[in-house]
Write a structure and sequence with these properties.
The chain is mainly alpha-helical. It is built from 24 helices and no strands.
């Protein structure tokens, strides 16, 4: 019937399996795939922390999945670039169990929460090595070692940990790099120096292909793979030269032309275009994604193309403001085009993901900005079921009722929003301001002194707290005049 019908029992099975070898009972690529697919959907709808949870839950069932590790770190990066990049206590608690798998996913969460933390990267690599996760261990180890070698606080013992972990997952070149760095920190450790020399010989044997049999032999196989290895190393670099970017883009373009329907190839080509990032590249990437959507009907391609076009429209507004700040008509046209484009994008996204409350909230805000208040009310009434954003949604709902002249409904909605515990101070201030405005409107309409007096008390409390908040000084004087008229009448 769906993913969450088996959530409790399946999660429990995965946690219990964490105390076993990852190859033991309780692991299932099929069950993991359900979590991974759901994680992609949540990432595409900007629910990044939820996507992180789903990636990790899937990794309990299939800890060998490198694409899932990549997906997790992608969702984590998007989450950290948001307005409130702090992992919730609930998420931390969810991944704090015992056993090898639980230690592995907990280590991934810790590193994903702070990707510049070399110690967290080392811990994740070690956790992968403890379960003999070869490919994930090498993926993590390459990135963790890069951080560790740049971090002056990295200790010799940590580098030794990395060396042995990387050796265990057969990343011998990386293990030697870690060992060499440890020896540089303590040249007097002769035993470690010998161990590193032996490992270096092993790395040479592995890299050169000694001991391989077959018609071509190891050396020829190694030559065949040299270009592929160079590309992988270039792709892994954090900072790429212009020449490297051009080369990788050209390879991706040829692969796309040869396999235009292959999803990973599409993703890679778009990534390389956006990496170079000229306006023409952006337009080309949006075109590739749009064609992919037409062929596959996978909405995530449509959404990514929309994100690119929105980025271009926002840049146009900025450029007009910088180049022609006095040309108000041109700026207004660009802003109107951007607003219409955003509204259309979110309408399409809500249609594709009708149960996503965050998207409904975002669409409601666009309706509100466009003056389509009744449409906005419908979106906000659905979105208020999202406990995390309920106070903010009710604030917009109250503002929509007020804009429609429904002052009783506006007052009641603002009161409900203010009563929700835990709202940030800035949001609480906005809600109190909205309530006083609605009370002022209702006092004017109904000639009711009680509404005016309550509005005045709210205005005074906001002025005491922050006298320059919006138009609070003007608003306070207006309400004071209203009270005088009502008392005089």
């Amino acid at each position: 019937m769906g993913l969450f019908n088996w959530k409790k029992s399946e999660d429990a099975t995965a946690k219990e399996a964490g105390a076993q070898s990852w190859e033991g009972a309780g692991f299932s690529a099929e069950k993991a795939a359900k979590f991974f697919e759901h994680a992609k959907v949540k990432h595409d709808t900007s629910q990044y922390e939820y996507a992180m949870q789903l990636w990790l839950k899937g990794l309990r069932f299939d800890p060998m999945s490198v694409p899932a590790v990549e997906g997790f770190f992608s969702s984590a990066a998007s989450f950290l670039s948001g307005d409130n990049p702090k992992i919730s206590k609930e998420t931390i608690k969810e991944f704090s169990g015992k056993g090898n798998v639980e230690k592995y996913v907990a280590a991934l969460l810790r590193w994903g929460s702070n990707p510049s933390d070399a110690e967290a990267g080392i811990s994740a690599t070690v956790a992968a090595a403890e379960m003999s996760l070869g490919e994930p261990g090498r993926w993590l180890g390459k990135r963790a070692l890069n951080l560790a070698l740049r971090d002056k606080k990295t200790k010799k013992s940590q580098l030794e940990q990395m060396m042995r972990a990387l050796s265990k997952v057969e990343a011998f070149d990386l293990a030697v790099m870690a060992g060499d760095a440890a020896v540089r920190l303590d040249p007097s450790d002769a035993k470690l120096a010998v161990e590193v020399r032996n490992m270096s010989a092993q790395a040479t044997m592995s890299k050169g292909g000694y001991g391989k049999t077959g018609e071509d032999g190891g050396f020829r196989d190694n030559l065949k793979n040299a270009e592929h290895q160079r590309r992988l190393e270039e792709e892994a670099r954090i900072s790429k030269t212009g020449e490297t970017v051009e080369r990788l883009l050209e390879v991706a373009r040829r692969e796309y032309e040869a396999h235009p329907s292959d999803r990973p190839t599409i993703n890679n080509y778009v990534k390389r275009l956006m990496e170079r990032g000229t306006p023409d590249d952006e337009t080309a990437a949006a075109g590739v994604l749009s064609r992919a959507f037409e062929e596959t009907k996978e909405f995530r391609f449509r959404q990514l193309a929309g994100d690119i076009r929105l980025r271009q429209a926002k840049r146009k507004v900025r450029e007009l403001l910088e180049a022609s700040p006095t040309d108000a008509a041109a700026v207004d046209r660009a802003k109107s085009e951007l607003a219409a484009m955003e509204l259309g994008e979110f309408e399409a996204r809500v249609a594709a993901y009708p149960t996503d409350l965050i998207l409904k909230f975002e669409l409601g805000k666009r309706y509100f900005d466009a003056g389509r208040f009744e449409d906005a009310v419908g979106m906000f009434q659905d979105a208020k079921s999202d406990a995390k954003n309920r106070a903010a949604v009710l604030g917009y709902l109250g503002a929509s009722f007020r804009a429609m002249g429904w002052f009783d409904e506006a007052v009641e909605t603002y009161r409900q929003a203010i009563e929700i515990p835990g709202a940030e101070e800035s949001l609480n201030m906005d809600l109190r301001y909205g309530l006083l405005c609605a009370l002022q409107d209702r006092g004017e309409e109904q000639k009711d002194l009680g509404n005016a007096e309550e509005a005045y008390k709210l205005a005074s409390s906001i002025a005491i707290q922050q006298i320059n908040f919006k138009d609070i000084r003007v608003r306070r004087e207006q309400i004071k005049g209203l009270m005088a008229r009502l008392k005089g009448g």
